[in-house]
Design brief:
One of its GO terms (molecular function) is proton-transporting ATP synthase activity, rotational mechanism. The chain is an all-alpha fold and 126 residues long. It contains four helices and no strands. The longest helix is centred in the N-terminal third of the chain and has 20 residues. The mean pLDDT is 77.
């Protein structure tokens, strides 16, 4: 008898372990913190704002002034003739020096000879 009882107990244990390990009906766990958060979130009511809440925060709007059209001078022809007669004056006069052609040629020749010259040899550092 003891062997039959032992066999029945082992079969029952195997059946129990299989049913627990591969159970298809999972127990739904409630997230208490999430439920509490959602409950408080749904229960929150914003306080009503007073009707004068915008006073001091929003500036009063006013339309910009209408631009005035430019006015033409009374005697336009006299002003145009005065403009034509005036000599142009630079804000800061610049002196222009004209180089003689020989100086320019000599300068270019000197520059070209400098470019064609060999570079000075440097001492080798070991």
């Amino acid at each position: 008898m003891s062997s039959t009882v032992l066999r029945q107990a082992s079969c029952a244990a195997r059946a129990f372990s299989r049913s627990c390990a591969f159970s298809t009906s999972a127990v739904a766990r409630k997230d208490v913190v999430q439920d509490l958060y959602l409950k408080e979130l749904r229960a929150y009511k914003t306080p009503p704002l007073p009707k004068d809440a915008h006073v001091g925060v929003v500036k009063a709007w006013s339309a910009p002034p209408v631009p005035q059209p430019p006015t033409l001078p009374v005697d336009l022809s006299a002003e145009l003739s005065a403009y034509d007669a005036a000599e142009p004056v630079a804000a800061g006069e610049v002196k222009v020096t004209v180089l003689e052609p020989e100086e320019t040629v000599t300068g270019a020749e000197t520059f070209l000879s400098f470019l064609e010259a060999d570079e000075p040899k440097k001492e080798a550092h070991h």
